[in-house]
Amino acid sequence: MKRFDGQTVFVTGGNKGIGHGIATRFAAEGARVAIAAIDSDTPQVASRLAGETGAEVIGLQLDVTDAAAVAAAYDEVEARLGAISVSVQNAGVITIAKIEDLTEREWDLNLDVNTKGVFLCCREAILRFRANGIKGRLVNTASGQARQGFIYTPHYAASKFGVVGLTQSLAKEVAGEGITVNAICPGIIHTEMWDYNDRVWGKMLGNYGPGELMDEWVRGIPMRRAGTPAEVGALVAFLASDDAAYITGQTINVDGGLIMS
Ligand SMILES: NC(=O)c1ccc[n+]([C@@H]2O[C@H](COP(=O)([O-])OP(=O)(O)OC[C@H]3O[C@@H](n4cnc5c(N)ncnc54)[C@H](O)[C@@H]3O)[C@@H](O)[C@H]2O)c1
After folding, report:
1. Is 119's C-beta closer than 6 angstroms to any atom of ligand 1?
2. Which residue of 61, 72, 80, 100 shows the fewest CB atoms closer than 10 Å?
3. What pLDDT sits at residue 144?
């Protein structure tokens, strides 16, 4: 008997990076998994993950900022895999810019994907938990930048602080129904997003060569290494498990000790 046998888990941004680590963990632990992401390769990634794990995995191309598309995606997943009991709001974007160059478009993109996307998916999931009488689990991906804003990313930091506020408020609203809502704060996890950070922040902060900024920041982590998507997946699976039934409204760092608050 595996921990998530018979459960349907929905993971946004599940086709790569941290989200793929989360989806892989749930698939390995017996869940039926739906990954939804903006990238067109998402269905192919899902088929590959199904082949690797033996789990039922489906992939949907979805823009989490589109409310109607989000509702349709939850409908499709429930029709194909059964009632959802865990929804992981992980899709995210980052851009890096000095304030004089930071456009309204960039501001809106970060807030739309990282904060509004979490709201839309949480709302959809809660409506379905209620309709199906499920004490469901919501896990929202925030960031170390939900603890402290880093330089040249006020829009990203605002979007991630927003995730924490949204998580706490929702947790209070649905606690009486046995639904939990928690947030996670990854630190430095080597994904495509960090390749972008390394390149762009590196140039803006002092002409670092490829990988050099990441190496420098990793030296500042007490555990002296970057984290992996699998390590984030382990935390998310814990928060979605029976062992975490009495944990709600919390924001938990998974960062090797980078931030201790
Ligand atoms: N990598 C890190 O060090 C780090 C640290 C802290 C927080 N995070 C957060 O973790 C999450 C995953 O980041 P990652 O590093 O795996 O990044 P990534 O760039 O590897 O993956 C981002 C994912 O988000 C999806 N996505 C982007 N815009 C979308 C949209 N509009 N609709 C649906 N899906 C969309 C992409 O398809 C992709 O699956 C993000 O929320 C990010 O902010 C990452």
Report:
1. no
2. 100
3. 98
Residue 106: predicted pLDDT: 98
The pair of three-digit structure tokens given for residue 212, joined into one six-digit string: 């050099």
Q: Say if ligand 1 is within 6 A of residue 91 CB.
A: yes
Q: For residues 60 and 43, is the Cβ–Cβ distance under 8 A?
A: yes
Ligand 1 site, residue 217, Cβ cutoff 6 A: no
Interval 168-220: pLDDT, tens: 999 999 999 999 999 999 999 999 999 999 999 999 999 899 999 999 999 99
Between the CA of 20 and the centroid of ligand 1 the distance, in Å, is 10
Atom of ligand 1 nearest to the CA of 193: 19
Whether 225 contacts 256, CB under 8 Å: yes
Cβ of 13 closer than 6 Å to ligand 1, yes or no, is yes
Which position has the token pair 């704060």?
Answer: 185
Residue 144 in contact with residue 261, Cβ under 8 Å? no
With the most atoms of ligand 1 within 8 angstroms of its CB, the residue from 10, 15, 18, 163 to mutate is 18
What gap in Å lies between CA 238 and CA 41, rounded to an integer?
Answer: 28
pTM for the predicted model, two decimal places: 0.99
Instruction: Work out the pLDDT band at 146, boundaries 50, 70, 90.
Output: very high
C-alpha of residue 16 to centroid of ligand 1, in Å: 8
Q: How confident is the model at residue 23 (pLDDT cuts 50, 70, 90)?
A: very high
Going from the Cα of 37 to the center of ligand 1, the distance in angstroms, rounded, reads 9
Tell me the two tokens of residue 24: 């892989």
Ligand 1 site, residue 60, Cβ cutoff 6 A? no
Mean pLDDT of 116-143: 98
Sequence spans of domains, the chain: 8-189+230-254
Structure confidence at residue 163 (pLDDT):
99
